[in-house]
Amino acid sequence: MRVATVKRASQFELVADKIAPDKSISHRSVMFAMLSRSQSRITNFLRAEDTLNSLNIIRHLGAEVKDDGDTILIRSDGIKEASVVLDCGNSGTGMRLFCGLLASADGHFVLSGDEYLCRRPMRRVTEPLRSIGAKLDGREGGEKAPLSIRGASIKAFNYTSLVSSAQVKSAMILAALRADAECSFSEPSLSRDHTELMLKGMGAQISTTNLTTTIKPLKEPLRPLDIRIPADPSSAFFFAVAAAITPNSSVLIRGVTLNKTRIEAFKVLEKMGADIEYIELESRYEPIGDIVVKYAPLKAVTVDSNIAWLIDELPALSIAFACADGVSVVKNAKELRVKESDRIDTVVTNLLKCGIEAKQSSDGYEIRGGNIREATVDSYGDHRIAMSFAIAGLRSGMIIEDTECIQTSFPNFFDLLAKIGGVNES
Ligand code: S3P
């Protein structure tokens, strides 16, 4: 088991130009390249376990992949039946989006993953996909992986989802591309929209009005993707919190997506008092630019809206809450319970170990700002819990057990952290 020891940091000015490339966009880039018959070109792909698993899966599905370690070139002449179990590792995004991509492909496919992924709910994709003709099954009637898929014809649909989930939406959009007529998908609040933006950029006819996305089935293969993956705001956010809780510190995050469905946690940090600047520099499928975060004393906040836009950042945000003046409250976030760990439980349990007053509710938590104490905390196999408590360690020192999981999304996290504080991971 890998264990990290983080030492208290003093004032820093960090230029973060090596933040991990975006995980959501990386997964999608290799999957969507399968929908073109021309060569797609991807640079700055996230070379972490989750996304390398997706790249490996498309190889098993017959894609020709040339990878010189810098640029990935992908050409496909259609999805082929794979002779092996497709291993999604720890990735819910990988598994759920492949369900949509494979729902209409010719052949039989099996998707599996690690012990954590095999515990996570899959009915949220298997059920809607089955309702439109897809043939999927899995343990517990399709709730748990391993999942098996036999490609089938997809009936046109108007589906209303009860959960705001980009994974569910993306799976249904991918299935709709092969449906027998125009389809629509509605969600209770807008979830991240990379799928819509990227597929539109490749020529798909997709439009969104209010909370309903309309998808026309493909008449021909899409144009190839030509993309440089921007930095991941969810990974960048750990360093945003680091600057926001360390007096006289700042971080400049370069080349990050400024998509509004992804930077809500920065807006909350700003509301808490941090000094934040967004500098839009280019637009490629979506807006990309720099974010500067500077320290300022933080005050407590209530977070109860736009939850889907900051769900992945709530563990890191909870460290900012622990350093703020007053009681911060998170509500309407029960999705936290079905992430890589039950993040309501793992955040609160670890904060209590650090001497911070924290209380769970069914759909969130309350955290009273105070003095974080050095403690030994568990990652519970969850990369974002491991990295959040490493950032907490900048205030007090911290020992984080079971840090291998960081490899799923941000392999160079500790290299970057070492620039602002003492770190030892072994
Ligand atoms: C993701 C969507 C979100 C997010 C996950 C990545 C995606 O999950 O938490 O880390 O890339 O579509 P949900 O769709 O379950 O909200």
Summarize the structure.
The protein has 426 residues and is of the alpha/beta class. Helix content is 29%, strand content 26%.
Largest sheet: 4 strands, mixed
Helix content: 25-40%
The order of strands across the largest sheet is 22-23-1-24
User: Tell me, what's the shape?
Assistant: globular
What proportion of the residues form beta strands (DSSP E)?
25-35%
Structural class: alpha/beta
Per DSSP, the total helix count is: 13
CATH superfamily of the largest domain: Enolpyruvate transferase domain
Named CATH topology of the largest domain? UDP-n-acetylglucosamine1-carboxyvinyl-transferase, Chain
The count of strands amounts to 24
Structural domains: how many:
2
CATH class of the largest domain: Alpha Beta
Distance between the termini: 8 Å
Bound molecules: shikimate-3-phosphate
The CATH architecture category of the largest domain equals Alpha-beta prism
Mean of pLDDT: 98
* Low-confidence runs of at least 5 consecutive residues: none
Question: Nearest-angstrom radius of gyration?
Answer: 21 Å
Describe this structure as you would to a colleague:
There is one protein chain. This protein is of the alpha/beta class. The protein has two domains: 3-21 and 230-425, Alpha-beta prism (UDP-n-acetylglucosamine1-carboxyvinyl-transferase, Chain), CATH 3.65.10.10; 23-217, Alpha-beta prism (UDP-n-acetylglucosamine1-carboxyvinyl-transferase, Chain), CATH 3.65.10.10. Helices cover 29% and strands 26% of the residues. It is built from 13 helices and 24 strands. A four-stranded mixed β-sheet has the order 22-23-1-24. Strands 2-15-17-16 form a four-stranded mixed β-sheet. Strand 12 (206-209) and strand 13 (212-215) form a beta hairpin. Shikimate-3-phosphate (S3P) is lined by residues 24, 93, 165-167, 170, 191-192, 308, 311-312, 335. Residues 24, 93, 165-167, 170, 191-192, 308, 311-312, 335 line the site of shikimate-3-phosphate.
